[in-house]
Design goal:
By secondary structure, the chain is α+β, with helices and mostly antiparallel strands. It has seven helices and 21 strands. The strands form five sheets. A seven-stranded antiparallel β-sheet has the order 9-10-21-12-17-18-19, with no helix packed on it. It has a six-stranded antiparallel β-sheet with strand order 11-20-13-14-15-16, with no helix packed on it.
């Protein structure tokens, strides 16, 4: 009786709450409750609402997820009940009509005592077996452990599901902010372009009206004289055609002077100032658009106090190249003694900045930004943690960012110049191919100290890399 009661309790835990039978193709809802697929599908179809019958939680998504683990437990329960024949409350063996008192652990089935000594070769005597009530308690404990494990696994996946949904929301929010930023930036430019276009239209209309007014005044004067001349011509024609000679002679003859032109017409020349409206209009407008560009391209120079002794700087401090001879320069604290590089003169501790560096056809170079406190002496590994946010070229075609590990950049068009964009508060350092402004790479980090532009022309490499680096004069305003 004890074994029968234990089996019934175990099956009760594996019964569907709707049909009260062992689960058939069990599914699990997001709330954690389980049902037969057919049972919950019919209920949702009847109510036209995806809602849990147990807790009442509703779901937007009516798709159902199979609970394979629970299905396996149900299958095991069914196997335990195989060949079960009940008389009253006691299970009996179908083959021997004996009460099932044993459980064969080897074959995972209930057996009677007679099953241990079968003559058909299917004896369980050599198998592992135990009393049913013992087997039920053991398997019930195992099932409870499995259920607890599944609950923990469910919580584990739910936690990751929540975090992934949060990340998806973050990306969507970030995309919306970037769209608003792009819209705002282009709106500023469009406003300037529209205002300049309307201004040019107004100027053109004023010029046109001025020229046309003078021309039309001259045209009306010509037309007035033409009308008078035509009238006089008509009168003379009539007198010539008059057959009455006395009447002809009776009229006073025309004064010779009256037939002479007292007005000498001229063609008034006029031209619109084409140079204003058909000259470098786009360039003129572009110079005005620069006023709303943010960031304004920075004008950078190199700091000779930081340059490695082998580096040669131009007089205007915008060009750096590798020299064959080590120069005799002071070994001041800010000078690099091992790394062949030089820093920009200006430091940035806020705002947005952009500059461009000509790299030409070099086979090796480094460009980017570094924090002020980086080590200037001895060897160091360039990483963001060490204060380096740079990209470099090696062997003529290997472009990498100084991440850990290094990130290989997919560069399809060899850059002749590199654009560097720094957004200090935004924690962003981005690199671009200036030729077509394609994005090469972006670092996202947090900055807490001053940052300096960083330049390294690399070594000459037997002349293959002798071309210098040049800070391009991209500033658009005259000082």
């Amino acid at each position: 009786m004890a074994s029968g009661h234990s089996t019934l309790s175990l099956e009760d835990e594996l019964n569907c709450p709707l049909c009260r039978q062992l689960y058939s193709d069990p599914v699990i809802l997001d709330c954690g409750h389980n049902f037969c697929r057919e049972c919950i599908s019919k209920k949702w179809e009847a109510e036209k609402l995806a809602r849990c019958p147990e807790c009442g939680q509703t779901f937007r998504d009516s798709s159902l997820k199979s609970n394979r683990a629970l299905g396996k437990l149900v299958k095991k329960s069914r196997n335990i009940s195989l060949n079960l024949k009940v008389k009253g409350n006691k299970p009996y063996c179908i083959d021997h009509e004996e009460e099932l008192k044993l459980f064969c652990e080897t074959d995972k089935k209930l057996i009677c005592v007679m099953c241990l000594d079968r003559r058909d070769g299917r004896s369980h005597k050599a198998h592992n077996f135990m009393l049913i009530n013992e087997a039920v308690e053991i398997y019930k404990d195992k099932l409870k452990v499995s259920l607890n494990t599944l609950k923990q696994k469910k919580n584990y996946y739910q936690e990751f599901e929540t975090k992934q949904q949060e990340k998806i929301t973050e990306i969507k929010d970030q995309s919306n902010k970037l769209q608003n930023h792009i819209t705002s930036e282009f709106s500023k430019i469009r406003t300037v372009l529209d205002e300049k276009q309307q201004s040019l239209f107004s100027d053109l209309t004023a010029q046109e009206n001025d020229v046309l007014t003078r021309m039309e005044t001259n045209l009306r004067k010509i037309q007035d004289n033409l009308n008078r001349t035509q009238q006089m011509l008509s009168n003379v024609q009539k007198r010539l055609e008059n057959q009455d000679v006395y009447a002809m002679l009776k009229e006073a003859p025309l004064d010779d002077k009256s037939t002479e032109d007292d007005y000498h017409p001229t063609i008034m020349e006029g031209n619109l100032p084409v140079g204003i409206f058909q000259g470098p209009v786009q360039y003129r407008v572009w110079k005005e658009v620069v006023d709303v560009i943010s960031p304004v391209p920075a004008y950078l120079t190199l700091n000779p106090s930081t340059a490695h002794p082998r580096l040669l700087l131009s007089e205007d401090l915008t060009v750096v190249s590798y020299g064959d001879v080590k120069q005799d320069v002071p070994d001041n604290p800010e000078r690099f003694d091992t790394c062949v590089c030089v820093l920009g003169s200006e430091a940035f501790s806020s705002g947005k900045h952009y500059w461009e560096v000509q790299v030409g056809s070099k086979t090796e170079w480094d460009v980017g930004v570094v924090k002020e406190s980086i080590s200037r002496k001895g060897h160091t590994t360039a990483t963001p943690d060490a204060g380096y946010w740079i990209v470099w070229l090696r062997n003529g075609n290997e472009y990498k960012a100084t991440t850990v590990p290094r990130t290989r950049l997919n560069v399809t068009v060899k850059p002749k110049a590199i654009g560097v964009y720094l957004d200090y508060e935004g924690g962003q350092v981005s690199f671009y191919n200036v030729d077509n402004m394609t994005h090469l790479y972006s670092f996202l980090d947090t900055f807490s100290e001053r940052l300096f532009p960083y330049f390294s022309p690399g070594i000459n490499d037997d002349g293959d890399n002798s071309e210098p680096l040049k800070v391009l004069p991209v500033r658009c305003h005259d000082e």
